[in-house]
Amino acid sequence: MKQENWTDVEQYRDGNYALSSAFPALMRKVFVWMTLALAITGITAFGVASSPALVAAIFGSKVLFWGLIIAEFGLVMAISGAITRMSLSTATLLFVLYSIINGATLSVIFFAFSMAVIAKTFFITAGTFGLMALVGYTTKTDLTSMGKLLFMALLGLIIATVVNLFVQSTGFDLIISYVGVLIFVGLTAYDTQKIKQMCLEAPNGGEMSQKLALLGALTLYLDFINLFLYLLRIFGRKE
Known about the structure:
The chain has helices at residues 6-13, 22-49, 52-59, 62-82, 88-106, 109-112, 115-138, 144-167, 170-201, 207-238. It has 239 residues and is an all-alpha fold. The longest helix is centred in the last third of the chain and has 32 residues, at 170-201.
């Protein structure tokens, strides 16, 4: 969101602006859509893991597996880059499709980790995510500068992850996991504040505003999933 609009948000907080009637509804939609997407992903992951035929089809074929991975990236890029040109129903359908495909590829965690570790990690992730989302929602500090640093750190994390695919260092992998947790903890607060500002600036609860809320839900969904996976690598190693 543009830096020059931050003054508007501060004036609202000081009581100079009236709260837009669309704001509460849009924020609810952000978290409802995110929660539904997480539920779809979890149900899909468990369903695939419970079906030997689906497991064999997805993980027994490199073409299908990498096809799903590429489809995931393609869907995120499509939703993020072209959502303003889509109808709300199309954007929602693509978000649901992404949640299903992501669940199918994440089903592998049920073979790599015990249910106890997965459950424990999920609740820790939910608690951490909720706390940082609350911080991002309530803080009066502008987190824009922190967000830029976190984005650069995320790029470094991606590069380090690719390098470790060749190095195969368990110690380096643990460091990457801890750094990943810190990055997505910070991004949760930053993204929540950015989404809040976006909803504050929404003129109404029309389709365009709802599409932006859907985009916000996708952003927080990705923060949650990545935080969960990095924590799972840490707790799974300890177990």
